[in-house]
Amino acid sequence: MSGHSKWAQIKRQKGVNDQKRGKTFTKLANAITIAVKQGGGVADPASNFRLRLAIDAARASNMPKENIERAVKRASGKEAGELQEVLYEGFAPGGVSVIVEAATDNPMRTTSEVKSIFNKAGASFGQPGSVSYQFKHIGRIIVKKNDKSFDDIFSIALVEGAEDIEDVGEEVFIYTSMSDLAKIRDSLSSQNIEIAEADLIREPVVTVSADETGFDKVENFVNSLEELDDVQKVYTNLQ
């Protein structure tokens, strides 16, 4: 019986993992579609850097090539017109500022789902602009140190125009302006620096702290939001 129970548990876990994988692929496909729309309908990643970032993220998550091609093709079709980017703002438990980026073909449904999570968590749903001023939209490149030191990467990134550089163990976080992200990423890559991730993010201007209980509440709240099919990214100013 123990073997049977173990196999049943493995099957259940595989089902959960497959479900999460499918949800991730759906979100990545939506990000590709939004990137094409934001790029004026340009479906060539060589001419649309946001699309290139979205495709790179999909590949990093082992999304099959045919799924990526299907998402790009969809972005050029009629169904792409139904998908739009929506931004939600508010305050997580404890007054922590939060921004939710979503991609949806039904804003009313998505708004209802997001509001429901806010209400259940005792969070406050805000009006547009209520917290967005507390964040700056910037580029972030995460690179692997490998055989290079932090000083090596620091010097290269600084020359290329990076705005801030952070040493994080085996990786280095390089922050750039939105307009310089593509140039700096490509330059680093051409100098044999391994790019782990490159993306546009919302960085809090000022962070706030919380005790362990408060941190757990915010973390659970963010996790609930990220579980929604339409939610792409969630940002807070929690340190």
Describe this structure as you would to a colleague:
The chain is of the alpha+beta class. It folds into 2 domains: 2-81, Integrase, N-terminal zinc-binding domain (Arc Repressor Mutant, subunit A); 84-239, Alpha-Beta Plaits (2-Layer Sandwich). The protein contains 7 helices and 8 strands; from the N terminus they run H-H-H-E-E-H-E-E-H-E-E-H-E-H-E. The protein has helices at 2-38, 49-60, 65-75, 107-121, 150-160, 181-190, 212-227, and strands spanning 84-92, 96-104, 124-125, 135-144, 164-168, 171-176, 195-204, 231-236. The strands form 2 sheets. Strands 3-1-2-8 form a 4-stranded antiparallel β-sheet. It has a 4-stranded antiparallel β-sheet with strand order 5-6-4-7. The protein is globular, with a radius of gyration of 20 Å. It starts with a helix and ends with a strand. Residues 1-20 have low confidence and may be disordered.
